[in-house]
C-alpha cells in the first residue's frame, strides 16, 4: 500500500481512511478535511485490494464537488473511480439500461421545465409570471424529491405543514398537468432520472444483477442533505448490501425546504448496527476565535440533530476576535462594511478573499451600493446583481412609465413612498409577504425599491417618481464597473461549501435570521444551523452586524437576532469606521446616524462649514462625476462633502480619518480635495 494514502492525516482522519469496507459513517465538521479524508479512503480501499477501481461509485451534490473529488483521486493514483453527482450517475446508468429495460433510445432530458410548467399553469388558471412559474417548478421538484406524485401532493403538504406559493389544490393541478405534458412530449426532467433508475433497478432483476455486479462499494458525500428520492436510489444501488461510506455533518443541515432530511444520517447506526462511526472534529480552516464562536452557536441547538453534534477544535493559530456591531440603519451598516472591505484590501487582503453574507438575496442591494461608492469591486454569487434582476427591471419600467404619464392636473400627487407602493402593488408588492420562494424573493426586491424611495423622500420631501427613476438609473449605472476578482456577495445558502479569509455576516435581526416565516421549532433550528454555516465560512476575520432600522433616520424597531443572545455584547454600537460610537465634538453626545458620524457633530449643533467651501466642493464633484460618467454620489456623498468642509483636512491622514474615505478614494481624489480646502483656507486668512 502506498504510504502517501495515510501520510499527513491526523488520527481521526486516519481512522476513517482505514475503516472496513462498510458500513462506515464519517461525521465531518466544517473545515475538518472531509474531501481529503474520503478521497484517501477510496484510494486506500483500492490499494489494499478491498475493491478495484471499477467497483467504486462516489456521489455528491454538485458538479464542483464531484470535479474536485476526481482531481484528488487522480493525484492519489486512482483516476478511474467514478465520482459523480446523483443525477449524473443516474443519467449514465439510464443511457445504458433504458434500451433494454424500456425500449428505444432514452428520452431527452429537459434543460428547463418552465415551458411545460407554464402550459400546465395556464390550463389550471394559475399565474404564469416568471416568479410564480419558478415557485411552481420548485414545488414539483420538492414533491418528487419526497416521493409524492400529483395524487399525493396534498397529503404531503399537510404532513410537512408546508407553505405553498398558491393554494395547494391549484399546485396539485399544475403538477398533474405538467407530468401529463411531459409524458406526451416523451421527455424527462432531472428528478425523473432518479425515479426511472430506481424503477428499473427495482423491477428488472437482470438489470439489477448486472449493475450490482459492477458496483460493490459506495461513498456518499453530504449525506445530511439526501432526499427520500436519493435515499431510494441508494437503496436500489445497494440491493441489501452494506458496503457504503457516508459522510455528513448534522450541524450543516440547511436544505429541508428542498426535501432534504437528516433522518438518514441520524438513523444510520440503527439501520446498520455494525456500523463504524468516526468523528472529524479538528478544524484546519478557521482560527480558535471563529471555531469557538461556532461551537457556542451550535451548543444552543435542540432537536434530533444534537445526537450527532460535533464540537470542533481549531488547528490554526490565534487570530482576531470576532466583532459584533449594531448600527442605526441598513445604509450605515452597509457603509461600515464597505469601508472595512476597502481597508482590508488596502492592507493586503485580496478582494476575492472577502465575503459579505446575508440571509436574503434582496439584502445585496445596500451592499452593492456601498461597495460601488467605495470603489470596491464585487461579484454576486448565486444570483444577479440587484439592478439586473428581472423584477427590479420590471419595476423600474413601471415607475418610468408612471413618471412619464405624470399626475392628474386637478389632483396633488400623493407622497412618493405611497405612490411607489401603489405602482408596485400590481406586480407583486402585496401588503403581506408571500411564503418563501421566488415570489418572496421578488417581494423582497420590490420592498428594497420602496426603501430607496423612503431614503429619497427623507432627503427631498418633494421628490417625485421621475426623480426616483433618475436616482435608480444612476445607482444602476454606478454598478456597471468590472467585478472580476471582487468581494463576494452571497446568501448563506449559496455560501455553503466555500470559505474566505474575511467574512462579514450582516443583517442579523429577528425576522431576517431567523427568517420571519420560520415558526416551528424545527424551522428555527434550521435557521440556527444556517447561521452556524455562515460563521464557519471564515478562516480568520469574522464580523457580525445588524441594523435597528431599514432606512436612514427610520424608526429603530428591529432587534438583533435571538441567536446572538449570550454571544454579542450589549454595547456593540460602532461608527462607520468600525470603532466605538463617536462623540459630538461640540456637545459630547453619542453619535449614531451616518451623517452625524461623518461630520463629528449632532444634527442640532451648529455646522462650522464654510458655505463657499461647500459650493466649491460641490462644483468640483459635479465636474469629476461628469468626466467619469458616474452619478455624483459615487465620487462623494453629500454627507462626506459636508464633513470635509467642516473638518478642513490639511493632509492625507486627516482625509482618511473622515469615515467613508478609504485609500481608493484618497488616491483618486485626495490631491484635488486638499487643494480646494487649502485655497479656501488661504482666502479666509
Structural summary, described in words:
This protein has 685 residues and is of the alpha/beta class. It is 48% helix and 10% strand. The protein has 28 helices and 14 strands. It has a 6-stranded parallel beta sheet with strand order 3-2-4-5-1-6. Helix 14 (288-299) links the parallel strand 7 and strand 8. 47% of the residues are buried. Mean pLDDT is 83; it is low at 480-484 and 573-581.
Helical fraction equals: 40-55%
**Count of DSSP helices?**
28
**Tally of strands:** 14
The major sheet is characterized as: 6 strands, parallel
Label the structural class.
alpha/beta
Report the sheet-strand fraction.
5-15%
User: What is the molecular shape?
Assistant: globular
User: What is the terminal separation in angstroms?
Assistant: 85 Å
Strand order of the largest sheet: 3-2-4-5-1-6
Runs in which pLDDT lies below 50 for 5 or more consecutive residues are: 480-484, 573-581
Radius of gyration: 28 Å
Mean pLDDT: 83
Question: Any descriptors?
Answer:
10% strand, 685 residues
Topology:
Blueprint: H1 11-18, E1 24-28, H2 34-47, E2 56-60, H3 63-75, E3 82-85, H4 86-101, H5 114-123, H6 130-145, H7 153-160, H8 168-184, H9 190-203, H10 205-214, E4 217-220, H11 228-238, E5 244-248, H12 263-266, H13 268-271, E6 276-280, E7 282-283, H14 288-299, E8 313-314, E9 323-327, H15 330-346, E10 354-358, H16 364-374, E11 378-380, H17 390-405, H18 416-424, H19 438-459, H20 465-478, E12 487-491, H21 492-495, E13 500-505, H22 521-535, E14 538-547, H23 594-599, H24 611-628, H25 632-635, H26 638-647, H27 652-656, H28 663-684
Parallel strand pairs: 1-5, 1-6, 2-3, 2-4, 4-5, 7-8, 9-14, 10-12, 10-13, 11-12, 13-14
